[in-house]
Amino acid sequence: MLIRYITASLSLNHTMTAILHDLKIQGSIITPSSPSYEQAISRVSEVAVRRAAYVVYPAVHSDIVEILRFARSQSPPLDIAVKCGGHDPSGASSSEGGIVIDLASINHVKVSEDKKTVAVGGGALWQRRPSNCCPGQWKCRDLQR
Questions:
Q1: CA–CA separation, 56 vs 63, rounded Å?
Q2: DSSP state of 120
Q3: Beta strands in 2-104 (DSSP E)
Q4: Residue 130 maps to a domain
Q5: Measured at the alpha carbon of residue 88, what is the angle toward residues 83 and 96, in degrees to the nearest 5?
Q6: Residue 99's pLDDT is what?
Q7: Residue 39 is part of a domain; what is its CATH number?
Q8: Is residue 114 part of a domain?
Q9: pLDDT of residue 15
């Protein structure tokens, strides 16, 4: 059962924002007072939009570890949502009052030299794959129909 926690106090929210900004992460943190906040919480479907307390764009995988540690250390723990492409109309990639970890910056697609393995970052989109991602012997299909 998913329980969504909402920050009750502006002073608490301000203190948590200061603590979150003190984390040793390489990515960026967006709050409701940030100019890009509305864009950060937008989704393909308006029904899926939730008013997150924080939207974090991790730059490296270790940022995610720090963000999760912070969210779980709060009392009560903050709700966590992960946004990959943001195409889920149910709102699973959104959070009301919690933290959204937006993987848009972790969008690499790397094909191994032997062309047998592809490493794909959580924020990679099908349209941005390199042309060598699907050599003829691979079966690739567009999952975004």
A1: 9
A2: E
A3: 28-30, 54-57, 80-83, 99-102
A4: no
A5: 60
A6: 93
A7: 3.30.43.10
A8: no
A9: 57
In our burial notation (b when 16+ CB lie closer than 10 A, e otherwise), range 44-61 reads: eeeebebebbbbbbbeee
Q: Which two tokens stand for residue 35?
A: 């100019």
Domain count, the chain: 1
Question: What is the domain extent for residue 30?
Answer: 10-105
Where do we find the tokens 């974090």?
A: 56
Which three-class secondary structure state does DSSP give residue 19? helix
Q: Is there a domain that residue 82 lies in?
A: yes
Per-residue pLDDT of the chain (145 residues; tens, 9 = 90+): 233 333 333 344 555 565 666 778 899 899 899 999 999 888 878 888 889 989 999 998 899 999 999 899 888 888 999 988 777 778 888 889 999 999 988 887 877 888 778 777 787 776 666 665 665 555 554 444 3
In a domain, 97, yes or no: yes
Long-range own/partner contacts, residues 77-83 (CB < 8 A, 24 or more apart): 77/5, 78/5, 78/7, 78/53, 79/2, 79/3, 79/4, 79/5, 81/50, 81/52, 82/122
Q: What's the pTM?
A: 0.74
DSSP character string of 41-56: H--SSGGG----SEEE
What is the pLDDT at residue 135?
A: 55
